[in-house]
Design goal:
The protein is 46% helix and 12% strand. By secondary structure, the chain is an alpha/beta fold. Helix 1 packs across helix 2, helix 6 (144-150) packs parallel to helix 7 (167-176) and helix 11 crosses helix 12. It starts with a strand and ends with a helix.
């Protein structure tokens, strides 16, 4: 259902509000550069700082601009099952193709609780669900066995795996089945991830380098592994640089370099990237041939 380079879109702000025209232009650029799907309202989109109206607004803008050319996977996860379901229904109402739902954070549910959470969402969701497992942010970590159990539900179709454990790709492939879609949540591991059975990456770097990330994923789909390795080497410093400060601050700075005039504004508690981080981003962009 999903594959390739899938940017986790930043949300541009201006004057404290979502910069609609900038965002629509950004989405159009992403599609023209070869992105295979779009994720609005994820971590990189500062979803934690968006109110309910803005959440709906950003997803709707993405859908309206995409016009069905690529799927839209809307970030909808919270640590409250009822609130997550409400966000999923909102996303479906404005035309999203699927919902990306993070493992519930803060309240640290058990594996039984995680299974109950996702199965409740799946049972009542009007659109497919992509499970987002990122233990470094959520503390809770959905086990391979629990993922296999919930993947039996027809509306739980994929996982965004940001565990940093490449061995899980094979384990999940064996337990969830070859038809279950696995997407990397770590740009720097996407090459190994796909070699082990993954089919794409929900990417931070694709915000800044959509064409290179798309070419990289396409090379792997076509088994051009030598070319993919060269693109990995070209992109690797950027993958690292975009996390030299709290994300997405370095990414928004990078966008000011490749798309002059793009607003660098973030919402508190996030602040502008440090000078050292900006220097790292500049060096990485030069290494990639983007500036």
């Amino acid at each position: 259902m999903f594959f390739g380079s899938i940017p986790a879109l930043v949300t541009p702000f201006a004057g404290g509000r979502v910069a609609e025209d900038t965002f629509s232009s950004f989405v159009e650029w992403q599609i023209s550069e070869g992105s295979n799907a779009l994720v609005p309202c994820g971590t990189t989109g500062e979803v934690a700082t968006l109110n309910a109206d803005e959440h709906r607004q950003v997803i709707a803008l993405t859908v309206q601009t995409a016009k069905g050319r690529v799927p839209v996977i809307a970030g909808c996860g919270t640590y409250d099952t009822a609130a997550s379901l409400e966000r999923i229904r909102t996303a479906a109402d404005v035309g999203a193709d699927a919902a990306l739902c993070v493992v519930p954070y803060y309240n640290k549910p058990s594996q039984a609780g995680l299974a109950a959470h996702f199965l409740h969402l799946a049972e009542h969701s009007p659109i497919p669900i992509v499970v987002y497992n990122v233990p470094s942010r959520t503390v809770a970590d959905i086990s391979v066995e629990t993922l296999a159990k919930i993947s039996e539900h027809p509306r739980i179709v994929a996982v965004k795996d940001a565990t940093g454990n490449l061995g899980r790709v094979s384990d999940q492939r064996l337990k969830c089945g070859e038809g279950f879609c696995q997407l990397s949540g770590n740009d720097d591991m996407a090459l190994g991830f796909n070699a082990m059975g993954g089919v794409g990456c929900i990417s931070v770097s694709a915000n800044v380098a959509p064409r290179l990330c798309s070419d990289f994923q396409k090379a792997m789909r076509e088994s051009r592994w030598e070319e993919a390795l060269k693109l990995q080497d070209r992109l690797y410093p950027l993958h690292a640089a975009l996390f030299t400060d709290a994300s997405p601050a370095p990414t928004k700075y990078g966008l000011t370099r490749v798309r002059p005039g793009f607003p660098e504004d973030l919402r508190l508690p996030l602040v502008e990237a440090s000078a050292d981080s900006k220097r790292a981003v500049d060096a990485a962009l030069e290494h990639a041939g983007l500036i």
